[in-house]
Design goal:
Shape: globular
Structural class: alpha/beta
CATH architecture: 3-Layer(aba) Sandwich
Oligomer: single chain
Largest sheet: 7 strands, mixed
Number of strands: 7
Length: 246
């Protein structure tokens, strides 16, 4: 599966929509959402540095590079458009919040699986092991969803993953930083957490409602990567309203 940016800059468009995927993720996570965006709106579905490549490329990247890449992309879009909406998943939500706190021209946020508090379930580790070993049943839809959302060409050499450890420690630091600034968020923000998220704690919902004025929804049958059909129907309905509302 290819992992590439999708960029559609519409001349004289007032609005641009930026998509930011999660750690070790892929722009493909948002493909179905892009289908609902009117042609007159600019779209930038970005690929973070070190993603879409091999295990070693991911190890060689850094949180600093990702944040700088997002910042430059936001600046570019704001220079060409009156306002910017950001749709983000997992780690990408942390970048979205930071940018929105810095610049009020970021008019709206649509955030999926915001990792304000982590809790890694054993099922997440089992799914990752199945993907590593290549032993995935066609009926194991949650593992397949995780595999499809992985933007890294995985190596069979376990030692190559040692370079991933610093990237995840950087993620933990970024989560702590976001906790300190999230109460400053004034942007129109909609958050969608999953009841059966394998990586994000259920306590995140309580913290987000306490610390923000955002609208927080819970997808009752979904996980970090997998969306139940009814939940996804609800999510796409919300997304279309989000795009069209002024």
């Amino acid at each position: 599966m290819e992992h590439k940016e999708f960029v559609r800059i519409v001349p004289k468009s007032k609005t641009a929509i930026l998509f930011i995927h999660g750690i070790a993720g892929t722009p493909n996570h948002f493909n179905k959402f892009i289908e609902f965006i009117p042609e007159e709106i600019s779209v930038y579905n970005m690929l973070l540095d070190g993603h879409g490549k091999k295990t070693k490329d991911f190890s060689a990247s850094s949180m600093k590079k990702w944040k700088r890449q997002v910042e430059k992309t936001v600046d570019k879009l704001l220079n060409e458009h009156k306002n910017v909406y950001i749709i983000a998943h997992s780690m990408g939500t942390l970048f979205a919040i930071e940018e929105a706190v810095k610049d009020e021209r970021i008019e709206k946020l649509f955030l999926l699986a915001l990792p304000i508090k982590l809790f890694v379930k054993p099922s997440a580790l089992i799914s990752a092991l199945k993907i590593y070993l290549g032993k995935i049943s066609s009926e194991d839809i949650k593992v397949l969803a995780m595999k499809n959302c992985c933007g890294i060409e995985l190596s069979k050499n376990p030692f190559e993953y040692a370079g991933w450890i610093p990237r995840f420690f950087e993620l933990f630091a970024e989560i702590r930083k976001t906790k300190k600034v999230i109460s400053n968020l004034k942007t129109d923000c909609r958050i969608y957490q999953s009841e059966y998220d394998e990586l994000v704690s259920k306590k995140s919902v309580y913290l987000l409602k306490k610390k923000t004025k955002a609208t927080v929804n819970v997808l009752e049958k979904s996980g970090h990567y997998y969306y139940d059909k009814n939940d996804f129907d609800f999510l796409t309905k919300e997304f279309k309203e989000f795009i069209l509302e002024k």
